[in-house]
Every structure is written in C-alpha cells, then in structure tokens.
Backbone:
C-alpha cells in the first residue's frame, strides 16, 4: 500500500543537512580528554578489543566505545559483515557511525549519528545505548532488531530523529520516546508494537509520526494535543473509534494524514476541512459512514484524496472536484449516489479518479440496486455523537 510521505525516512542527506543546526543544540556537557584506560566500567571487556596503548579519546567517545562493544555482543547475525570493523577505540571510523564536533568544544568529536539502514542485523538494543548521549540521529530501518526499547534511551537528550522502522520490536507503545526532549521525527512503522497509543504523543513537539503497520489498538485520542506535526501516518492498525473533531488542533501544521485501514467508524467531522494545509488525506479501508463534509472543498492545497472502501453516502460535491491542485481522487467502494458538476467528468480536469462500486447512475461498474437500496433505507445522522452514528 502506497504511503505518500514527502519525507524520505532514513535519508542520510537529510541527516547531513540538519546537522549544523543540531550541533548547536547538542546537550551541554564538558568533554574531557583522557585515555581510554582511565575509564572504569563494570562491563566485561572482551579480549578482541585492540586498544592501542596511547589511544586518546575524550570521555564521550569512550562511553560510545563501551556502548558499541556492548551492542556488538548482542548482534547475533550480520550477514554482510558490516559491524566487522566495530573494533578498537576509533568509534568514529566504525561503519554506520557518524561523528561531529561537540558544540561546546569543537576540538573534540562526539558520536552524533548512527545509520544502519538495510543492514539486516539481528539482535537487540542493549541498555548501554544510553551511553550514546550525544546522538542526534538513529536510523535502524530494515533490520531484525527485536525485543523492547531500553529505558536508557531516555538519556539521548539530543535525539532528533528516531527511525526504528521495519524491525521486530514488540511490546506496548514505547513510552520512552515520550521522554526525548529533542525528538522531531518518530518512525516506528512495520514493527509489532501493540496496545494503546498514549495521547501524550500528540502533546510532543513532533514534526512527523509514523506508526503504521503495527498492532496498535486504541482509539484516536478524543482530545488531540497540539503536536506541530506535518505528517501523521497511522495506517494498518486497529484503532477503532471515530476521527475526533479535535483533529482541528493540528490545523496549523498538518500536511499529510493517513488513516488507511485503522477501523475508524462514524462520520468524517467537518473539522477535517479546518486542516487547511493538507495535501494528502487518505481514510480508505475504514467503516466511515455519512457524507463528504463540504468543508473539504476548502482544502486548497489538497492533492490526493482517498475515501475508497468505506460506507459513505450522498453526493460527491462539485467544490471538492474543483480543488485547484487535486490530482488523484479515489472514492470507489462506497455508496455515493451522485457526482455533482465537474465530478462527473474528472478526466476533463486531468484528475486521476476511481468511482467504481458506488450507486452512481449512468456510470460503469456500480453496485446493484439492491445493495444501494439497503443502505438508502438507513440514513445516517452525523449530528449524533460518534458511538450513536454506528450501526
Ligand atoms: C555549553 O554551551 C551551552 C550554550 O552555549 C551552555 O548553555 C552550556 O552551559 C555549556 N555547557 C557546559 C558544560 O559548559
Ligand atoms: C563474513 O565474515 C565471515 C567470517 O569472518 C566469513 O566467513 C564470511 O564469508 C563473511 N561474509 C561476507 C559476506 O563477507
Ligand atoms: C579511519 O579510517 C581511515 C580510512 O578508512 C584511515 O585513513 C584513518 O587512519 C582511520 N583513522 C583512525 C584514527 O583509525
Ligand atoms: C547518560 O549519559 C551520561 C553522559 O551524558 C552518562 O554519564 C550516563 O552513564 C548515561 N546513563 C545511562 C543510563 O546510560
Ligand atoms: C488491514 O490491517 C490488517 C491488520 O490490522 C491487515 O491484516 C489487513 O490485511 C489490512 N487490510 C488491507 C486492505 O490492507
Ligand atoms: C499547486 O501546485 C503548484 C505546483 O506544485 C504550486 O506552485 C501551488 O502553490 C499549489 N497551489 C496550492 C493552492 O497549493
Ligand atoms: C491514485 O490513488 C490511488 C489510491 O491511493 C492509487 O492506487 C493510485 O496509484 C494513484 N494514482 C496515481 C497516478 O498516483
Ligand atoms: C469529458 O470531458 C472530455 C474533455 O473535456 C470529453 O472529451 C469527454 O467526452 C467528456 N466525457 C463525458 C462522459 O462527458
Ligand atoms: C451521545 O449521545 C447519547 C444519546 O444521544 C447521549 O446520551 C450521550 O450523552 C452523548 N455523549 C456525548 C459525549 O455527547
């Protein structure tokens, strides 16, 4: 299923672009230069770690060294041998590790990024990951990391981007991410997180939230916070409930809202039309009833609108089909009974569309009269609250 985000997760280019800005925000701590032998820690050092006698590392890189060695010990499969050079004290030379000057003392380097995308590693995240406290980016997309996220992640106070997508993380929604003060980009998609999405997630200062393709079950919070998010992707979870009118709280920032296949019921609230920056709205494969809120005709930036595979009724309003930048409008597999004005001929406007399997007279591939009549006899009252509008 296509998820159209304009943000390409795991893009190292992005990481390099945002670095100069991030560096200014890196947590303020002194970096002392000492030798690695001065470090006392309780982890068993393995003999294969070659430590040149005069290897000079600041204590931040020393902690990173401990973290990477601990991590390497719990990586059980590395089919492409990417971590084979995770040896010795020069952590900045390790594959997938990116160092940057420490802001308060630009003479020293700290580990600012990890990018292991598509390495196919199997293992888990050790508690020692909390020692990498200067990290701004973690990209672990497409590996086989499993287990739960260590609580020590909360130590990563500079973490800006966390991409754990396409792994095998399990357990409840990892609330440790809520404690990361600098986090802007959260990508947990394609894992096996389950249960409730904490409503606190919507009070965080996040720009993009991807939680699609997990086993999350909670309803969307009745009171969306004011997360300044531009992208929310919740597809393929079992949320249930209705899209709350408080979605309007995200109006000043939200550009993409993807709620595909999330078991959402009830009518679309008029407030969807308050999300004036929306470019992509996809609520397909749900149990939405009732009409298209006319307010959608006010979404001037809308490019992609997908209402397909619901139980919506009524008229497809001309105002929506007239939207200047609309390029793809899918409303197939509903019970719409009329296409108003230009909606009858979207081809003439160069808009990709799909209106199959509705109740549209004179259009090909529509539902049977029997199917359409059955729905006609149970009008939907959207003025009732969410639970009442359900059948
Ligand atoms: C690091 O720099 C920041 C901002 O310049 C400052 O607020 C902070 O106190 C400094 N930290 C230390 C440990 O010197
Ligand atoms: C990885 O390293 C192991 C042992 O060092 C070796 O047997 C294997 O061929 C290497 N695999 C690749 C893909 O280089
Ligand atoms: C890091 O690796 C580069 C080449 O891969 C090498 O030239 C350099 O000496 C290494 N630095 C250290 C400190 O090992
Ligand atoms: C958190 O980071 C600090 C350094 O910034 C380090 O001293 C401490 O051990 C870390 N705590 C954990 C739990 O990793
Ligand atoms: C919807 O999501 C469920 C899991 O929640 C999945 O099993 C099903 O295949 C998805 N349906 C579609 C049409 O993608
Ligand atoms: C429509 O798209 C064009 C080209 O991408 C863009 O320049 C313009 O600002 C868009 N208009 C609106 C209202 O979003
Ligand atoms: C239009 O949207 C539908 C539904 O999301 C998608 O299947 C189709 O590929 C899109 N068409 C184009 C040309 O992007
Ligand atoms: C739709 O509009 C196009 C171009 O304006 C025209 O050629 C076509 O006949 C129209 N189709 C219908 C069904 O009216
Ligand atoms: C929902 O509607 C029922 C019956 O109409 C009513 O008793 C209930 O108070 C309403 N709940 C809310 C939250 O409006």
Residues:
């Amino acid at each position: 299923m296509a998820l159209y985000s304009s943000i390409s997760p795991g893009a190292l280019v992005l990481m390099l672009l945002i670095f100069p800005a991030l560096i200014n925000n890196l947590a303020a701590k002194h970096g002392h230069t000492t030798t690695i032998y001065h470090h006392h820690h309780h982890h068993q050092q393995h003999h294969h770690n070659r430590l040149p006698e005069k290897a000079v590392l600041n204590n931040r890189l020393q902690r990173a060294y401990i973290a990477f060695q601990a991590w390497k010990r719990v990586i059980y499969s590395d089919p492409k041998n990417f971590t084979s050079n995770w040896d010795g004290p020069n952590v900045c030379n390790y594959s997938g590790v990116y160092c940057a000057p420490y802001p308060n003392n630009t003479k020293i380097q700290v580990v600012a990024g990890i990018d292991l995308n598509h390495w196919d590693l199997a293992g888990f995240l050790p508690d020692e990951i909390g020692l990498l406290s200067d990290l701004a980016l973690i990209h672990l997309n497409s590996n086989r990391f499993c287990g739960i996220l260590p609580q020590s992640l909360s130590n990563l106070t500079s973490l800006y981007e966390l991409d754990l997508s396409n792994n095998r993380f399990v357990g409840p929604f990892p609330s440790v991410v809520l404690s990361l003060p600098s986090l802007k980009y959260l990508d947990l998609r394609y894992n096996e997180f389950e249960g409730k999405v904490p409503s606190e997630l919507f009070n965080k200062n996040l720009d993009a939230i991807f939680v699609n393709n997990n086993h999350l079950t909670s309803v969307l919070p009745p009171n969306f916070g004011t997360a300044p998010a531009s992208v929310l992707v919740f597809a393929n979870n079992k949320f249930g409930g209705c899209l709350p009118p408080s979605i309007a709280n995200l109006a000043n920032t939200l550009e993409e809202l993807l709620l595909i296949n999330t078991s959402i019921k009830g009518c679309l609230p008029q407030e969807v039309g308050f999300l004036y920056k929306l470019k992509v709205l996809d609520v397909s494969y749900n149990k939405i009833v009732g009409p298209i809120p006319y307010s959608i005709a006010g979404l001037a930036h809308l490019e992609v609108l997908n209402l397909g595979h619901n139980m919506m009724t009524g008229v497809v309003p001309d105002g929506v089909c007239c939207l200047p930048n609309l390029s793809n409008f899918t409303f197939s597999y509903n019970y719409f009974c009329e296409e108003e004005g230009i909606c009858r001929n979207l081809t003439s406007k160069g808009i990709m569309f799909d209106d199959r399997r509705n109740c549209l007279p004179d259009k090909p591939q529509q539902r049977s009269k029997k199917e359409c009549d059955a729905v006609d006899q149970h009008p939907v009252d959207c003025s009732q609250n969410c639970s009442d509008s359900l059948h």
Summary: The CA atoms of residues 261 and 285 lie 5 Å apart. The chain has four helices and 24 strands. Residues 306, 328, 330, 352 surround 2-acetamido-2-deoxy-beta-D-glucopyranose (ligand 7) (CB under 6 Å). Residues 59-73 form the longest helix (15 residues).
